[in-house]
Amino acid sequence: MTITRVANEERICQGDIFENVTCILSVTTTDGVQSTTGLSYPYVVVMSQDCDLQQHYEVLCRIDPDNGEEETDKLLTTVIVVPMYNYEQFIIGEHLQNQNRKMTRHFISRNKTPNRELRNNNNPRYHYLQFDESTLIVNSVVDFKHFFTVSIDYLYEIRGRSREYTIDVLFRERLSQRFADYLSRIGLPDGTTE
């Protein structure tokens, strides 16, 4: 897979990788004081469609705060992201231990090459991302079941300090297609999928 450094790209793109993004789980108010509970992920990849992200950016660029006549129906509120898990921790089921979740070891090999099914992206729930040593990101796995949304305004706020890499177009298209396929699978009443 090829990733590149983000080169002063103003807008957020599908396939952008952000560091240290928090998924807000709840907001509570006690005695007039608000507090939030969330999970922080070392890396997430943006999954929202690039055409939607492009249209959002174009509207932002055209908005005249003094005029207020620009149509804003193309603006997004949130962006879909998927956490990236360290591959080595993932295969031994320890990638979510900071959330006190015990994960199973799914990929004990039945053939001679360990974790071949995972690394070849033959399991529809997961996508393996291999990075070269020039990046500071270790090989990772995304679990399509663990997607969440994050405020697009927040991503624009942190993009300069938190977004360093983006997945090249061909690879992000494959990742996007596999994500859409997983979400559109047919669920059966007993919890299995078609």
What is the topological layout?
Layout: E1 3-5, E2 16-30, E3 33-46, H1 50-62, E4 78-86, H2 87-91, H3 116-119, E5 126-129, E6 140-143, E7 148-151, H4 152-162, E8 163-167, H5 169-183
Antiparallel strand pairs: 1-8, 2-3, 2-8, 3-4, 4-6, 4-7, 5-6
Rounded to the nearest angstrom, the distance between the terminal CA atoms is 29 Å
**E-strand count:** 8
| Main sheet record | 8 strands, antiparallel
Helix content: 10-25%
Structural class: alpha+beta
Number of helices: 5
Q: Looking at the structure, what is the overall shape?
A: globular
Q: How large is the radius of gyration? A: 19 Å
Mean of all residue-level pLDDT scores: 82
Number of domains: 1
Percentage beta strand: 25-35%
Ranges with pLDDT <50 over ≥5 residues?
none
- Helix-strand pattern: EEEHEHHEEEHEH
What would your notes on this structure say?
It is a single chain. The chain is α+β, with helices and mostly antiparallel strands and 194 residues long. The chain has one domain (3-183). 25% of the residues lie in helices and 30% in strands. The chain has helices at 50-62, 87-91, 116-119, 152-162, 169-183, and strands at residues 3-5, 16-30, 33-46, 78-86, 126-129, 140-143, 148-151, 163-167. Strands 1, 2, 3, 4, 5, 6, 7 and 8 form an eight-stranded antiparallel β-sheet that branches. The longest helix has 15 residues, at 169-183. The radius of gyration is 19 Å and the shape is globular. The model has no long low-confidence stretch (mean pLDDT 82).
